[in-house]
């Protein structure tokens, strides 16, 4: 029989699935995963209580739990019941997650968190099992496998109800399961609870010697709750207060003590199955950091504004015109991309590192200036950071005529967005600069807009992507939003009309047309662009349209409320790494701005 059209013949053996024997460790659709994070690292938890992904000790370290990508490491807390349904929720203004299971005999919960704020060298996983309304029995299984699964637990010993072990370079300690037993390299236990009782499990992982005594779980929970509420100012008066509060919790959870914010907690979750579009996002993108800082500035002098300004200014002062698009959260170089020997999430291979380290992206200098202007408006820019302003301006002066990889990190071209966002940054910071410089900065902005108008203005009067590329691009909504040209300028309005008509579908927005055919045939809708569309409509005074775009894209999250980069409109599924920080940032910003008078002048 002939192969069906489009099918590929495979003679190679199926890849080894080291988790295939255990249904609890098979991957779920991305919408089912929750995130716990402490700023220094994060973990994904699936609906079976399976802690399926975590890197330690830091975001970009090798994984210790990797069942999400087909590896052997996982930490499971699951009701001992043949039948149950799953749900869950986050405690307000935190990343404390509660898995909620309804079984045949009662309700069981697992309250999960990483002790917060995190220590760069030691992760502490807190899991509190609660028998809500009936006696409960819960199965627990632990397998730490460092080095992307290459170094499973060994030297496993027990004493005084405490388990200690090693996994590669990491020292481990597990308390709360004194009756656990070792089976096939894993620790397994059954926790039995009377109605209303709770039971704590505490797992410590460190690249340093652990303290002599295990921590007290009650003290850790109290500290974590207090730290979360202290770290996040209240949010109210927006278009979606609860979601905006949660977005700020996600952004804080992705931000380390150095101020660096990872783009996402994961690597290699495919944007498009079997297309090679899967990347490692466990690093700090300058652009994303700026988006987050500008977003939270809409709520006032938010702590995340200060951390964003600090991180971006430090990198500018250290690297100048050689500023990289992305860094590790400690400010180091992003490693070169390599393939990791794991089966991978279905539809993708596993990669660590990112080729962005070799790119030049002009627009990041403009985004930095927009960020600094937002900080200056709130009097949060110090003398040292003012020097970073000068560095960014000098880089734009020197390089605005150069081709760059642009916002979408493609081939080097003279991208219209890159030059216009630099103009926006120059105009924004000119409002807060000394008179002797503000005029020069505005003049440079005029030059960039004039040059872009000459080379990238479509015959219909809208912006086009680049010279010789007349396609519409949703990123070209941002220059008007950030002030490169006025909102009432015909170029702004015609670009909005074109994006709405050509790239808007069913309330979602795509980046640009890759090729002829339906937009969804090439990639998912870009949620960043959906929230940008809401901001653009609101800026034009189209309040109802803006609210519709906002609400449609706000709904494109998983059950826990997390967003990825893309949304598959046809299948209503999340695509790409999880959670994507810039989507949460733009949700936060649009929730605030859409509650304001659209006629008010842009203040940054």
Give a description of the structure:
- Mean pLDDT is 94; it is low at 1-21.
- The protein has helices at residues 217-231, 241-253, 286-297, 303-319, 363-377, 383-399, 416-430, 435-456, 478-482, 490-503, 527-539, 543-554, 581-593; strands spanning 34-37, 42-45, 50-55, 63-65, 74-79, 84-90, 97-103, 107-114, 122-131, 136-143, 145-146, 151-152, 154-159, 162-167, 170-175, 181-183, 186-193, 198-206, 284-285, 326-327, 338-340, 350-352, 504-505, 508-509, 525-526, 566-568, 573-575.
- The chain contains 13 helices and 27 strands.
- Helices cover 30% and strands 21% of the residues.
- It has 604 residues and is of the alpha+beta class.
- Strands 1, 2, 3, 4, 5, 10, 16 and 17 form an eight-stranded antiparallel beta sheet that branches. The chain has an eight-stranded antiparallel beta sheet with strand order 6-7-8-9-18-15-14-13, with helices on one face.
- Helix 4 (303-319) packs across helix 5.
- It starts with 33 loop residues before the first strand and ends in an 11-residue tail after the last helix.
């Amino acid at each position: 029989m002939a192969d069906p059209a489009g099918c590929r013949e495979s003679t190679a053996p199926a890849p080894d699935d080291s988790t295939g024997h255990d249904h609890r460790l098979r991957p779920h659709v991305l919408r089912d995963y929750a995130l716990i994070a402490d700023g220094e690292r994060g973990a994904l938890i699936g609906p079976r209580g399976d802690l399926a992904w975590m890197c330690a000790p830091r975001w970009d370290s090798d994984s210790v739990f990797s069942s999400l990508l087909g590896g052997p490491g996982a930490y499971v807390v699951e009701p001992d019941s043949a039948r149950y349904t799953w749900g869950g929720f986050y405690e307000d203004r935190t990343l404390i997650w509660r898995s909620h299971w309804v079984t045949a005999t009662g309700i069981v919960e697992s309250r999960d968190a990483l002790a917060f704020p995190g220590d760069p060298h030691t992760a502490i996983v807190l899991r509190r099992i609660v028998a809500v309304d009936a006696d409960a029995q819960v199965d627990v299984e632990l397998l730490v496998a460092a080095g992307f699964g290459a170094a499973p637990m060994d030297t496993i010993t027990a004493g005084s109800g405490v388990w200690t072990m090693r996994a590669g370079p990491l020292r481990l300690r597990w308390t709360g399961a004194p009756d656990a037993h070792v089976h096939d390299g894993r620790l397994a236990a059954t926790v039995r609870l009377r109605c209303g009782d709770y039971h704590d499990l505490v797992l410590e992982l460190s690249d340093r010697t652990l303290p002599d005594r295990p921590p007290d779980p009650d003290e850790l929970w109290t500290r974590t709750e207090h730290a979360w509420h202290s770290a996040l100012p209240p949010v109210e008066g927006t278009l979606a207060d609860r979601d905006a509060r949660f977005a700020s919790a996600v952004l804080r959870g992705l931000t380390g003590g150095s101020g660096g914010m990872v783009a996402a907690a994961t690597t290699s979750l495919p944007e498009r199955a079997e297309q090679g579009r899967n990347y490692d996002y466990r690093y700090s993108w300058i652009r994303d950091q700026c988006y987050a800082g500008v977003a939270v500035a809409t709520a006032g002098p938010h702590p995340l504004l200060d951390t964003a300004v600090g991180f971006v200014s430090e990198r500018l002062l250290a690297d100048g015109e050689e500023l990289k698009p992305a860094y590790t959260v400690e400010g180091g170089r992003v490693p070169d991309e390599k393939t990791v020997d794991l089966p991978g999430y279905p539809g993708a291979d596993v990669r660590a590192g990112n080729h962005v380290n070799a790119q030049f992206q002009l627009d990041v200098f403009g985004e930095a200036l927009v960020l600094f202007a937002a900080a200056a408006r709130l009097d949060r820019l110090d003398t040292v950071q003012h020097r970073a302003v000068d560095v960014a301006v000098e880089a734009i002066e020197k390089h605005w005529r150069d081709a760059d990889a642009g916002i979408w990190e493609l081939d080097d071209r003279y991208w219209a967005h890159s030059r216009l966002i630099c103009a926006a940054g120059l105009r924004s910071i000119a409002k807060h600069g000394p008179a002797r410089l503000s005029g020069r900065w505005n003049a440079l902005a005029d030059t960039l807009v004039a040059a872009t108008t000459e080379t990238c203005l479509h015959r219909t009067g809208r912006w086009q992507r680049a010279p010789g590329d007349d396609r519409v691009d949703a990123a070209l909504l941002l220059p008007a939003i950030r002030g490169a040209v006025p909102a009432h300028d015909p170029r702004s309005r015609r670009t909005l009309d074109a994006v709405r008509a050509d790239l808007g579908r069913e309330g979602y927005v795509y980046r640009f047309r890759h090729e002829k055919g339906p937009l969804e045939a090439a990639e998912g809708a870009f949620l960043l662009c959906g929230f940008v569309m809401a901001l653009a409509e609101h800026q034009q005074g189209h309040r109802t349209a803006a609210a519709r775009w906002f609400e449609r894209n706000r709904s494109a999250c998983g059950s826990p409320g997390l967003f990825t980069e893309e949304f598959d409109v046809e299948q209503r599924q999340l695509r790409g790494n999880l959670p994507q920080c810039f989507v949460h940032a733009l949700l936060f910003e649009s929730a605030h701005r859409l509650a304001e008078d659209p006629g008010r002048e842009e203040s940054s």
